[in-house]
Amino acid sequence: MTRQARSRPASLAAAGSVAVLASAATVVTAAHRWWPNVTLLFAVLTVGAVAWLVTRTPQGPRALPGLLVVAAACQVPGLLSAPITSTDAYRYVWDGRVQLSGSSPYSHVPLDDALADLRDPVLFPGLSPADRSWIAGPPRVPDDPTALAALSADDPRTRINRPRVPTIYPPVAQAFFAAVALVTPWPAGTFGLQLAAAILAVMITALLINALRRSGRDPRWAVLWGWSPIVALEAGNAAHVDVLAAAFVVGAVVVATRSRPLLAGLLLGAAAAVKLLPMLLIPAFVRRGGMKTSLATVGTFLTSYVPHLLAAGTLVLGFLPGYLGQEGFSDGRSRSALLALVLPAEARQVVVAVTAAGLALVVILLRDRVTIAVASCWLYGGALLLTTPTYPWYGIPLIALAVLAQRYEWIAVPLAAYLAYAGFGHDTRQGLAYLGAGAVVLIASLVRRTAHEHRLPRQPAT
After folding, report:
1. What pLDDT was estimated at residue 24?
2. What are the structural domain ranges in the chain?
3. Which terminal Cβ of the chain has fewer Cβ within 10 Å, N or C?
């Protein structure tokens, strides 16, 4: 064995150790509020540099299995702590538990005394099954923003967020919550969901490796997902269901490129029934078989609601309308922090709608010139830049799409979301964070275009 061949496992081990340490540093600093965004930025840049170095070395036979082992190790630090970035996982546990009891999370709120037997010290540290909250049945969601905010406020008696309103999560997410709840003991709290999300993250790494290899690209670039501190924080730690949406989105893109439009539509519809955002990717699939994909996507999404419609009736949307109103998606006054830098509130919604429609049209017109993965990056990343959500885990599917499309600059958008999350309530600061991410994407795109034009063969002078 040559010295170079012997050095490959050592190089992979060293790179993997750096990635695991970066993930651990992200989790620890986020837990203790020690410069979490600075740590996350440096951790992501470090993993990016490590990925570049890994792909510069010759690929040995143990390289790809080693990537998966390190991806699994990166999830471990997050599993050792309770969720840090949000309390969403506690709502997931509750929704799954309610379904297993035979009730619907769309028609009951967590503080409902009718479900008092489902309380435990993990989810309800200040409210036992014998206590009474004096809340019964689903509340009427008010139109007044002040009343809506009061209704959706947290309660110190429970770790579940918005415990006075029903759930917002669509049916496929609910099926996932119920499946995990079925095998998770109550004292384990959120750990079952954290472990499930960690496993999904590693599975997506394997899926990306396979997709990149089949397309003739270096599969080791999948480490930008598998070794990402962002993925470690939002999968193995926070257990955000966006990881499940990412799995369905990647699957949809992969099977669509293999000319299986119906299956692509089924997977994309399932992704939309986890989180609504993947529905925006339909224009990226409008090419050969695109109509089949579109119909299958919408059909899958609507069909997933049928069992819950039978169980909850008109309450089947839960708190989703109220949530969309609070986030500025349904009241005609977009909360886009990026557009707020230059536009009044009344104009933002129109600009968001027109820009999104224009982007979808461009994707359709260029369907023969860009891949589905690249088009999906434009649509998903563009939606995040336009709406500037303050919840960074919304960008998890975009990281997977960026790897699949080899458009790594889009990872800047989820990073900007963390800065926006830390600066909640400061619209200018949030807008500048997303403006910086948009600049990174634009500059990288221009550089790539220029480099591509320089590589094109010159026509001989006539």
Report:
1. 86
2. 88-137+158-189
3. C
CA distances from 17 to 34, 216, 356, 388, 411 (A): 22, 28, 41, 34, 22
| pLDDT tens figures, 95-122 | 999 999 999 999 999 999 999 999 999 9
Q: Could you tell me if 119 and 101 are in contact, meaning their C-beta atoms sit under 8 angstroms apart? A: no
Buried b (16+ CB within 10 A) or exposed e, 198-216: bebbbebbbbbbebbeeee
> Residue 441 to residues 39, 214, 395, 413, 424: CA-CA distances in angstroms?
22, 26, 14, 8, 23
- DSSP, collapsed to helix, strand or coil, labels residue 84 as coil
Report CA 201 to chain centroid distance, whole Å: 11
CA 366 → CA 264, 284, 287, 369, 427, distances in Å? 20, 9, 10, 5, 34
* Separation of alpha carbons 160 and 93, rounded Å: 9
CA 283 – CA 315 distance, rounded (Å): 30
Residues in the chain with pLDDT values less than 50: 1-7, 332, 459-462
Please tell me the distance from the alpha carbon of residue 257 to that of residue 255, in angstroms, as a whole number.
5
C-alpha distances out from residue 241 to 137, 196, 234, 246, 324, Å: 26, 10, 9, 9, 18
Evaluate whether 84 touches 23 at the Cβ level (below 8 Å).
no
Task: Return d(Cα 367, Cα 374) in angstroms, integer.
Answer: 10
Q: How far apart are CA 26 and CA 41, in angstroms?
A: 9
What would the DSSP string read from start to end of 171-230?
HHHHHHHHHHHHTS-GGGTTHHHHHHHHHHHHHHHHHHHHHHHHTTS-GGGGHHHHT-HH
**Which amino acid, one-letter code, is at 106?**
Y
pTM over 0.85: yes
Task: Kindly give, in sequence order, each residue whose CB lies less than 8 Å from that of residue 309, ignoring residues fewer than 6 positions away.
Answer: 316
**398's tokens:** 């975009």
Per-residue pLDDT tens digits for 295-313: 999 999 999 999 999 999 9
